[in-house]
Amino acid sequence: MMNVQRIILLVLAIVGALCTFAPWIKMPFLGDADGRELGGWLTLSLFTLTAILTCIGPRENPLTGALFYIAMAASAIAGIIATFQIIDMQCSSGNVFRDMALAMVSVRWGIYLVAILGFTVPVTGLAMKLMGGKKI
User: Fold this and answer.
1) How many Cβ atoms sit within 10 Å of the Cβ of residue 11?
2) Nearest to 94 by CA among 104, 86, 102
3) Each residue of 28-86: pLDDT tens digit?
4) What is the pTM of this model?
5) Contacts of 66 (CB under 8 A, 6+ apart)
6) What distance in Å separates the CA atoms of residue 32 and residue 53, rounded to the nearest whole number?
7) How many CA atoms lie less than 13 Å away from 66 in the CB half-sphere?
8) Residue 3's beta-bridge partner residues?
9) How far is the C-alpha of 132 from the C-alpha of 84, rounded, in Å?
10) H or E element in which residue 39 lies
11) What's residue 17's pLDDT?
């Protein structure tokens, strides 16, 4: 039996890790590029760390202590990385050639999911910690 909090955090972390392989941007003539081509290995590693940490320790109990906070921080950092990449692709840099190239690039759903899940994992974890964990 595994604690509900651990199961939910594990599922969210796995989905976040899998979003690394989803389309992050679309470039004309070149097609889609996923997170592996855009530095998504770091977000994959952070979500994988979160997933591993949810499986460490007595699984019948909620994730607590340092493991809990490290798991929440790792996912939040993944969300911050994805958010900064989205902002970076949509802001003007002052470099005309870079701005022209980025004007043709469109941000796809994969990077948005990484950003959303990066913040959903800690919010869910903290909310469930405050409510108290249940077993299934």
Assistant:
1) 13
2) 102
3) 888 888 888 877 899 999 999 999 999 998 989 999 999 999 999 999 999 999 999 99
4) 0.88
5) none
6) 32
7) 0
8) 135
9) 33
10) none
11) 96
Which residue has 């980025």 as its token pair?
A: 102
SS3 of residue 127 by DSSP: helix
Tokens of 2: 């595994």
Closest to 111 (Cα-Cα) out of 47, 21, 12:
21
Q: Which residues contact 32 (CB under 8 A, 6 or more apart)?
A: 23, 24, 25, 26, 108
Residue 109 CA from chain centroid, whole number: 13
The DSSP annotation for 80-110 comes to HHHHHHHHHHHS--S-HHHHHHHHT-EE-HH
- The CA distance from 94 to 102, in Å, is 12
